[in-house]
Each structure stands twice: as structure tokens, then as C-alpha cells.
Specification:
Length: about 425
């Protein structure tokens, strides 16, 4: 190797290799001799400097080569191979990584992996990894093994990455988390979220299907890059737990592939100035979640967990909630003047309603992001699937007494519509009776 006159104690990427300094031993002292399994790095295939690129940490996260070759802070980047889709040759490090992932598939019977920061792998290495993992999964009888890649940026970028690499779906597109979280809390226009799933023609796709099958939708995540370097917080922090069932219900009944970050179903509310506040431990003891050490959080009696299960079971029973088209519905207070709900000033307190339509089935979903009161509105539905006098029954409500009892009757308003009441901070689903 050749060495530039870099700062040895602050190695920044400048496209030149750095001298190998050593591994940490069990006492976090630097050593070049690995003496036990408490030392260095394992498996043994990674115990050679040549496995790592060693060009220093990333400074400019948008500079190509720097973001594929540089270290992410003090996380050392493994050499994966040349970044050429058509003449790619995997490195020894990538081949070893594939074996590690294959081991966990066979040992723990996992059904999918989330691949962090695909951008930093490069498309060629990602495609090789995807092929190896899918082929091994098929050899185990797992024909639908799921690979989710974290791909930030717009939908076109995500589409290109998924289609060219063989990933099954993308996470982090067009700031889905922000739009879903703050729409439910009343600080984003509903159209901003629902329009994420309508412009598939922009990508040369002639239907909604790509977005329904390939976009991961969620609220909480492990680092919240979208919120910048300031205060980070789970959805339930700062009183957000009031709307937690609304947002879980919306996530489970709108398009995309719904994903719950661990602990959301237990009401985790970590918040603070760094990622560590979003990575609470489920296992109790001295490592318990913030403000709650000394107990574990695998609690099936938790109210949020119980309601999430009800909503997930409903999703499973209704094909329209899994595969149907999606329409944000115009609403009306007087049954005459209809329009899509919009913010007044910097917030919105309203019923937000949508339909999922599959073949001849329509399912009506809605939430109310008013803190204090039930709201009632006329909601437009499909005039070709409904006629006056048809009825819908409540299949789910955050107000339990409504389930199986509350009914809606279709009337001739704005085509056809139903008059819907949603409890404060509530979420409801109605199906044809």
C-alpha cells in the first residue's frame, strides 16, 4: 500500500489507504494478535486487514466512491468488490458475509432480512448478495424470502435500485415516516401521504401495484435521520401515545408493506439527542427501556399490543386491506359540500377517510385526529359498488362497543356516501354487511 500524509488520528476518506493499526482485544486495547474469542473480530474470515477498505470515515455523504468506500463513523467498511453490474467479482469479504447470513437463515429459520444503507453497498454488490440469499432461501423451501433494502431518496431512485438489484422492497422512500406520523398527529395534509401511492406512471408503471408491494411503511425507526441532528423521538413520546392506535391502524390498512419497529406495540416513548434513545432494550434488567428498567417488555396483555393484534387479524381477513386499490375520500359536514380534508393554518383536526377496493369489495377506514371530541362527516364511497340502502357494519373501532354494532347506511350524496362518526383520537374500519 501507499500512504498519503493523512492525519493518522482522524482518518478521513481521501481515496488513499490507511495503515492497519490493529484490532481491539477484550480490554479494548489495540492488538494485531487475536488470542481468544473475546479479542478482535469474528468469524475468523474477517481477521485480515485486506478484508476492509481502510480509506477512512465518510465526510461527504453524497460523494460517490466516498459513500461506498468510506467508514460510517467508526464502523469499518468491508471491501465488497468492484461496483460494476456487468463485470462484478465478489470479494472474499462479501463471500464471507453471505455465509454469515446463510448461517442465520438455517439456524434461526428467519424469513427475511433488512439490509441497512444499501446506498453504501453499491448496486453490484447488492445484486450479488440478493441472488445468493434468494437462491439459498429457495434451497430451504423459502420461495418468498424477503429482502428489504434501506434506500433513501425519491421513488424513482428506489424503483431503480429494487428493480436492478433483486431486492423485494425499499424502506425510507420519500420520507414516508414523516408523512404518516404527522398526518395522523394533525400536522400534514392527508394528500401528502396518500399521493405517495398514486403516481406510478412517473416510473413507467401502469398501476399502483409496484407501490403496494415494494414500499415499506412505518413510523418509528432506529435512527430517524429524517429528523436531523437535533432531538429525536418515537411516535409515542411527548404525548404522541394518544394517537398511537390511529397511526398503527392507518399503517395496517393503507397501501404499502406495513412494518412495526419493535417496542411500538408496547408504547415505547424514547426521546433524546441521539439514536440511543430510540433503541430501548426489550429484555428488562438494568438494560430496560428508559425510565422503566427492571422489567421486560414482551407483554401480550398490553392494551396497544392487544389492539394491534385485532387490527392485524382484520387485515388478514380482508383481502381489500392487503391488495386493494386505495382512495382518499372527500368528506362533508353538511352532506352537500364535499372536499378532501386540508390543514387550516399549521394543523388539521378532522376525520380522514379512505377506501380500499378489491374487485367488488370496498372497505371504509377512517381516523379522527381531534384530541377532545367525536367527529361526524359524510364520506364519499364508490358509486359503482354501492347503492342507496346498502349497509356497512363496524369491523373495528378503538371504542370497543361499536364493533359489530355500529352501522352505516348508504345515501345518495355526492354520488353515494355514508355518515360516519369516529371517536376522539379514534380509528375505525367498516365492511359491507
Amino acid at each position: 500500500d501507499s500512504y498519503s500524509n493523512q492525519n493518522y488520528y482522524d482518518p478521513r476518506w481521501d481515496d488513499q489507504p490507511y495503515r492497519f493499526k490493529g484490532f481491539y482485544d477484550q480490554h479494548r486495547q489495540i492488538t494485531q494478535q487475536i488470542n481468544s474469542k473475546d479479542d478482535g473480530i469474528w468469524p475468523a474470515e474477517f481477521q485480515t486487514p485486506q478484508v476492509f477498505i481502510r480509506k477512512g470515515r465518510i465526510v461527504n455523504w453524497e460523494n460517490y466512491k466516498e459513500y461506498t468506500e468510506g467508514d460510517s463513523f467508526d464502523l469499518k467498511d468491508i471491501r465488497l468488490g468492484n461496483d460494476d453490474l456487468y463485470s462484478f467479482e465478489p470479494s472474499a469479504g462479501l463471500l464471507a458475509l453471505c455465509e454469515v447470513y446463510k448461517f442465520w437463515m438455517a439456524y434461526a429459520d428467519v424469513d427475511g432480512f433488512r439490509i441497512d444503507t444499501v446506498k453504501h453497498m453499491g448496486r453490484a454488490a447488492t445484486r450479488f448478495f440478493s441472488s445468493v440469499i434468494h437462491e439459498f432461501a429457495q434451497s430451504l423451501g423459502k420461495d418468498r424470502f424477503y429482502l428489504i433494502g434501506e434506500i433513501t431518496g425519491g421513488r424513482a431512485n428506489a424503483f431503480d435500485n429494487v428493480e436492478m438489484t433483486g431486492l423485494n422492497a425499499a424502506l425510507g422512500i420519500d420520507d414516508v415516516q414523516d408523512k404518516l406520523e404527522f398526518m395522523t398527529k394533525g400536522y400534514r395534509n392527508p394528500e401528502e401521504y396518500f399521493n405517495l401511492f398514486t403516481n406510478s406512471l412517473d416510473l413507467g408503471k401502469e398501476s399502483h401495484v409496484w407501490f403496494n408491494d415494494k414500499i415499506i411503511t412505518m413510523i418509528d425507526d432506529h435512527d430517524q435521520v429524517r429528523k436531523g441532528g437535533g432531538q429525536k423521538a418515537r411516535f409515542a413520546a411527548h404525548g404522541g401515545d394518544q394517537f398511537l392506535l390511529c397511526v398503527i391502524g392507518t399503517n395496517l390498512t393503507t397501501m404499502g408493506v406495513p412494518c412495526l419497529y419493535y417496542g411500538t406495540e408496547q408504547g415505547f416513548d424514547g426521546n433524546g439527542s441521539s439514536d440511543e434513545f430510540l433503541r430501548e432494550c426489550m429484555f428488562g434488567g438494568s438494560f430496560g427501556a428508559f425510565r422503566s428498567a427492571g422489567k421486560h417488555f414482551f407483554d401480550p396483555s398490553n392494551h396497544i399490543y392487544q389492539e394491534t393484534k385485532k387490527m392485524a387479524d382484520l387485515r388478514k381477513s380482508q383481502i381489500a386491506l392487503r391488495r386493494g386499490r386505495q382512495y382518499l375520500r372527500p368528506i362533508s359536514g353538511n352532506g352537500i359540500d364535499f372536499g378532501v380534508p386540508e390543514m387550516l393554518g399549521e394543523e388539521i383536526r378532522s376525520i380522514v377517510a379512505w377506501s380500499r377496493v378489491f374487485s367488488s369489495e370496498e372497505v371504509i377506514c377512517a381516523f379522527n385526529n381531534d384530541f377532545h371530541q367525536s367527529l361526524t362527516a359524510w364520506v364519499t364511497i364508490d358509486r359503482t359498488l354501492n347503492k342507496t340502502g346498502d349497509t356497512y357494519i363496524c369491523a373495528y373501532s378503538t371504542q370497543a362497543a361499536e364493533m359489530g354494532n355500529a352501522k352505516l347506511t348508504v345515501e345518495a350524496r355526492n354520488g353515494v356516501a355514508v355518515q360516519l362518526t369516529v371517536p376522539p383520537k379514534g380509528f375505525v374500519v367498516y365492511i359491507k354487511s
